[in-house]
């Protein structure tokens, strides 16, 4: 994986093979950030990266100037890798080793962008818990976005607060907003 833009543009990051991850492809990541680039000043926002895995999305935000990034993953190896990479690049990424659902139930901090990249094999009920907890617990700023990455075979358009989705190859991003 590589960082697409910003301070660390072009830098390659190689995650240990034993991590249980499926990083967002460079093509999909570039398309996603082209969308976000038109809506946000990255140095002014707070980002929550759920099911963060390798930290791929967190690094991209940090490279573009975001300083308030929290990465949550249940896997110790993933959290350790993110911490080591963030330290090597001098990125201010806070990591939390936690079950994402438990974290969302307890969290009180609002974010401008919440990005979730759960396992593609999740059932619709597992996917639906993400926006449910985010909106019930009011974890987004008023103009914030929840973005859920999933397979193009999974449809999330029936969930509350769904706004739109974009497909890139086998990846799909579904966007959720407070006021739709």
UniProtKB/TrEMBL annotation:
PROSITE patterns: N6_MTASE. GO terms for biological process: methylation. Keywords: Methyltransferase, Transferase. GO terms for molecular function: methyltransferase activity. InterPro entries: DNA_methylase_N6_adenine_CS, RNA_MeTrfase_RsmD, SAM-dependent_MTases_sf. This is Methyltransferase. It comes from Winogradskyella haliclonae.
